[in-house]
Specification:
It comes from Olivibacter domesticus (Pseudosphingobacterium domesticum). The structure is a single chain. By secondary structure, the protein is of the alpha+beta class. It contains 13 helices and eleven strands. It has helices spanning about 35-40, 50-75, 125-145, 155-160, 170-180, 185-195, 195-200, 200-215, 220-230, 240-245, 250-260, 270-285, 320-335, and strands at about 5, 15-20, 25-30, 45, 50, 80-90, 95-110, 115, 125, 290-295, 305-310. The strands form four sheets. Strands 1, 2, 3, 6 and 7 form a five-stranded mixed sheet that branches. A hairpin with a 6-residue loop joins strand 10 and strand 11 (about 305-310). Helix 9 runs parallel beside helix 11 (about 250-260).
């Protein structure tokens, strides 16, 4: 990713600020033991200074600034102005810790002369035009052969940094064709690529993922990955969940239940109403697959209570579900199923 420009001043010489964001902070808390070697390293003193101590402080400051920069990038900023760093001591109950706080205001700025005027009178960012062209070339090149091995780290960084919506089909295609790889490196690179859905607009990301999830042509493994991405980046939309629950495809409809079990960071009043409707719809959609009846014993007038599958053939029910119900019921009731052919 491009490095965020940081400055302690409130302006950038030679730059024009076009958008301000709310101030953000980043905190790094460390124990006093990180400076333990300072006391022992007397030989490290030169002229009253400790290079070891200074290196550790610089490392902590750098960590705080990097955290602040990462948060600024997520907001779409490319600069931080008014940067301030404070260090405080936290003591209590026999412990001593230090807290480094970085504070700044994220802004979107451009160098003077970078924006070019068009004949229409509107202005356009020259760098944005170049980035859009590079993005189009990348998409056209890799959509035909979405192998993760052919996409460099620089390109992954470009996707995560620019966050263009048009990258979504490419990211989904790469995921679909590489999610089942057994290589550890491929899995780690895919996890980085999944972050794309965490940095673009959440409503847009949610809509794209739920649309993909409802495709009847995708595999169950790929569908599982999509569910994990949605849950991991808090993109659950209960209107979409309800829509999935009403899908004619049983396998797709069952996916909705995983989202109901997952937690969201925040719930709205609308969510509560939708969850109630989802509960009612699920109860109607997934009815029991067995029913109890009685059967006369051979050479006897007495009857035994038995159960049978309510489906007349295997095409109407999942074989795995039927077998699971049979196993549980027979273990608890010790009854013999009527549809023995379902046991295979």
């Amino acid at each position: 990713m491009n490095k965020i420009i940081t400055t302690t001043t409130n302006t950038l010489e030679g730059w024009t600020i076009e958008e301000y964001h709310e101030p953000i902070t980043a905190n790094v808390v460390v124990g006093s033991n990180v400076f333990s070697d300072f006391a022992a390293g007397w030989t490290d003193f030169f002229g009253g200074r400790s290079s070891t101590y200074e290196r550790k402080l610089q490392s902590i400051y750098k960590q705080a600034i990097e955290t602040l920069s990462d948060r600024a990038q997520r907001l779409g900023a490319n600069c931080i102005v008014g940067l301030r760093i404070d260090i405080d001591e936290i003591s209590g109950k026999g412990t001593q810790m230090f807290m480094i706080t970085a504070l700044g205001t994220p802004v979107r700025a451009f160098k003077e002369g970078e924006k070019q005027s068009l004949k229409t009178g509107k202005s356009v960012d020259g760098n944005l035009v170049k980035d859009k062209i590079d993005a189009k070339i990348m998409i056209d090149t890799h959509m035909a052969s979405p192998k993760l091995s052919s996409i460099s780290e620089a390109k992954i960084n470009f996707i995560l940094e620019k966050r263009f919506p048009e990258f979504a089909p490419l990211v989904l295609s790469i995921t679909q064709h590489n999610y089942d790889s057994a290589e550890a490196e491929t899995k780690e690179r895919l996890k980085r690529l999944y972050k794309y859905f965490g940095v673009i607009d959440s409503n847009l990301a949610s809509a794209m993922l739920f649309d993909e999830l409802q495709s009847p042509e995708i595999s169950n493994g790929y569908r599982t990955i999509l569910k994990k991405i949605i849950i991991a980046y808090d993109l659950i939309d209960y209107e979409s969940v309800l829509k999935i629950l009403k899908n004619e495809n049983n396998e797709i409809a069952k996916t909705a239940l995983d989202f109901v079990k997952a937690n969201k960071l925040n719930y709205t009043v609308e969510d509560k109403a939708l969850l109630t409707e989802i509960k009612q719809t699920a109860a109607e959609r997934f009815k029991p697959v067995i029913e109890y009846t009685t059967k006369k014993k051979i050479f006897s007038s007495s009857e035994n209570e038995v159960w049978k599958c309510i489906y007349s053939n295997l095409n109407e029910a999942s074989r795995a579900d039927v077998l699971r119900v049979q196993k549980i019921t027979m273990a608890s009731k010790r009854m013999r199923p009527v549809h023995r052919r379902l046991l295979g």
